[in-house]
Specification:
Layout: H1 11-15, H2 19-22, E1 35-37, E2 47-52, E3 61-62, H3 64-77, E4 82-88, H4 92-103, E5 107-113, H5 119-130, E6 134-139, H6 141-154, E7 157-159, E8 162-164, E9 167-169, H7 176-194, E10 203-208, H8 212-224, E11 229-234, H9 243-261, E12 274-277, H10 290-301, H11 312-324, E13 332-337, E14 339-340
The site of pyridoxal-5'-phosphate has 18 residues, from helix 4, strand 10 and helix 8.
Pfam families: PALP
Protein name: Pyridoxal-phosphate dependent enzyme
Organism: Yinghuangia soli
Length: about 350
């Protein structure tokens, strides 16, 4: 497979003069991530391709790293002593944030809600401990909200003569700044389409845990002029994740670009511009489903992408069912593979 050569600077900087001064960026992975056909796992009338984010980043992988490329330099520019972020006990986002924060001289505190504990979660908790992050088990979303102001102060510090609270990073890194990572990925998909490496997809299918990846892609694809629709498979029932909230987040990111560049002219997205399906969630966030567990095994046996049961296997199980039911048409469907264990 040949890659499109990309310059070291992000595609967003190429589009916007002066953005590099207003929104700092720190490369943490190798762009572009590869695209390739994905036969055998979700066959049907639509031709299924994969964009594989698993190799992006060295000390953590998957979709979190692109968000951190904008978040870490933003926290550094604000002279924050630490990042405070949120998730469930098995949080991939928390682990990636903790590792990259530490590598760049920032502290990290995590407020974590409960999720069913299995071997994967136990292992993840050990990794979190080793990452140097301070873990607060806040158990429920309501208690997490209540504790957040106190935790911001608790993990703040005096810097350059001023008390600076911890940098508040929403669950999943899905702040308007973090979302820029997937605006960039949307532009990257467009360069791969125009280089003839990937047919223009009718849909990008991906798991939705906090919504930032889907929001960024929707904005980036619109921005690049592709007709590709974002089809998000909701795997989290602990947050409000509907088309209105995803598009609201995308539009906040558009406002950030408008404010910092002065010339962002893309029309706002509407809720009809993204599709969300929740039929593959099963009993709830973190609860495995038989279809997802089966797909983890099938993919491993076929030497396919490494799936996990919480996000990626549910998304691919959805793609498989929808393709079998002919609900995706007969064009190209791109599965965004967001898991990257290290
Ligand atoms: C492997 C994996 N895929 C997908 C997601 C969801 O991405 P987002 O939180 O941007 O919706 C996450 C984290 O939440 C994740 O860890």
């Amino acid at each position: 497979m040949t890659d499109v050569p990309l310059k070291a600077v992000p595609l967003l900087y190429e589009r916007y003069a002066f953005l590099d001064e207003a929104v700092p960026y720190l490369p943490l992975g190798t762009r572009p991530t590869p695209v390739a056909p994905l036969p055998g796992l979700a066959d049907g009338p639509a031709d299924v391709w994969i964009k594989d984010e698993s190799g992006y980043g060295d000390i953590a992988g998957g979709n979190k790293v692109r968000k951190l490329e904008w978040i870490i330099p933003d926290a550094l520019a604000r002279r924050s002593p630490a990042i405070l972020t949120f998730g469930a006990l098995g949080t991939n986002h928390g682990l990636a944030t903790a590792r990259y924060a530490r590598a760049h001289g920032l502290g990290c505190a995590l407020a974590l809600v409960d999720q069913p504990i299995d071997d994967h979660v136990r292992l993840q908790l050990e990794r979190l401990e080793a990452s140097g992050a301070v873990v607060h088990r806040t158990r429920t979303v309501a208690r997490t909200y209540a504790a957040a102001p106190w935790l911001m102060m608790r993990h703040g510090a005096f810097r350059e003569g001023r008390f600076r609270p911890a940098y508040l990073l929403p669950t999943g890194g899905s702040s308007p700044v973090g979302v820029l990572g997937y605006v960039e990925a949307g532009l990257e998909i467009a360069t791969q389409v125009s280089a003839g490496l990937l047919p223009e997809p009718s849909y990008v299918v991906l798991p939705v845990g906090s919504g930032g990846t889907a929001a960024g892609l929707a904005l980036g694809l619109r921005f690049a002029g592709l007709r590709t629709r974002v089809l998000g498979i909701v795997v989290n029932d602990q947050l409000t994740l509907d088309a209105k909230t995803i598009v609201g987040l995308a539009n906040k990111t558009a406002r950030l670009l408008r404010k910092r560049t002065g010339n962002f002219t893309i029309a706002g997205l509407q809720p009809e511009d993204v599709t969300l399906r929740r039929d593959w969630l099963g009993p709830g966030y973190g609860h495995p489903t038989p279809a997802a567990e089966q797909l983890v095994r099938t993919s491993a046996a076929a030497d396919g992408p490494v799936l996990e049961p919480v996000y990626t296997a549910k998304a691919l199980a959805a793609l498989k069912d929808l393709n079998t039911r002919r609900e995706l048409g007969n064009g190209t469907v791109l599965y965004l593979h967001t898991y990257g264990p290290r």
